[in-house]
């Protein structure tokens, strides 16, 4: 398998569903993506702010695998990188299989620690009808599989650009499977 890579980076200053493709984004330690509406030490997603605005922000960076877009396009959806609100679109990395606490060195300096799965929200169907069902699946035992990417926190800041390599640093054993955050 080839080296995992960044295929696109995105940010938005507003609480819009989709994010805009950028040439580069800057990750800020302990905050998230510079200039992105979801950056902050405490929760920034509206539903979470409404419940408890003092909770730590475990969703500073949203990473999504480009392979999901391939699958969705093949299924008849017109959805492309940035459309689902991710900050970093990856290729060659099974983000959903990473254990909690995995660290990703992205580009020369940035390090993101994976905190959990993105739980698809009702906005996905508002974007395109039927898309929520398309980003959910079931395994052989009937367990729900959430395919809408993973969330993380910025441990070390740095610039992230299209084409940057991604190095995976797994946590110590035993590995803990990702759950929604």
UniProtKB/TrEMBL annotation:
Name any one GO molecular function.
molybdenum ion binding
- An example of a Pfam family matching this protein is MOSC
Q: Which domain of life is it from?
A: Bacteria
Domain called MOSC: residue spans: 19-169
Q: Which InterPro entries does its entry note?
A: MoCF_Sase_C, MOSC_domain, Pyrv_Knase-like_insert_dom_sf
* Name this protein carries in UniProt: MOSC domain-containing protein
Q: Which organism is it from?
A: Caenimonas koreensis DSM 17982
From the broadest rank down, the organism's phylogenetic lineage runs: Bacteria, Pseudomonadati, Pseudomonadota, Betaproteobacteria, Burkholderiales
